[in-house]
Amino acid sequence: MWASQSLLSGCNSCICMEGLTGEQRLAFQEAFSLFDKNGDGCITMEELAAVTRSLGLDPSDQELNDMMSEVDMDGNGIIDFQEFQSLIARKMKDGDGDEELKEAFEVLDKDQNGFISPNELRTVMINLGEKMTDQEVEQMIREADTDGDGLVNYDEFVLMMKNAERKISG
Fold first, then answer.
1. In angstroms, rounded to a whole number, what is the distance separating the alpha carbons of residues 14 and 159?
2. Would you state the torsion angle of the CA atoms of residues 71, 67, 78, 94, taken in this order, to the nearest 10 degrees?
3. What pTM did the predictor assign?
4. b/e map of 148-162 (b: 16 or more CB within 10 Å)?
5. Distance of CA 159 to the CA centre of its chain
């Protein structure tokens, strides 16, 4: 099952872009662009399926429909940027993301050895369509790697994600 199954119920959690810092706005836009493969400002069912499958997940058509309908508040069959922001706001507000963090870590930890290596991170980013230099991948690992072993364990991953969440939520 995909990590973001329990997504939205209502738009009370919408974030106004005016209330975000430039860094927060950029983080939302970068996350959105990972899904919006053709850059048209909308996430289609096909793009949602492609991203989940590129992460090694295999949701059924029904699961994809459920995910889409939870986020697609106006029912037009696509997820626009405002709906995507609402999703992020809801996830940040819920604060109970332990299971989702475990699932995300498992997706990144391809060999399931308890660590995310630079090669595993690079593979996932390539699958998402993000071209990164070796230096960029190594920098991402260094930022999360608090014990200096060149790998990211689960505790380091959780700490990195919580710090990123704090940056985004202000």
1. 25
2. 20
3. 0.55
4. eeebbbeebbbebbe
5. 16
DSSP 104-121: HHHHH-TT-SSEE-HHHH
Length of the chain: 170
Cα–Cα distance, 59 to 153 (Å, whole number): 26
- The answer to which of 89-98, 124-133, 156-165 has the lowest mean pLDDT is 89-98
Q: Which residue has the tokens 């992460």?
A: 55
The domain over range 22-94 is classified in CATH as 1.20.1070.10: no
Question: Is CATH 1.10.238.10 what the domain over 97-169 is classified as, yes or no?
Answer: yes
- Domain ranges for the chain: 22-94, 97-169
Instruction: List, in order, residues 6 or more apart from 74 with CB less than 8 Å away.
Output: 83
Mean pLDDT of the chain: 78
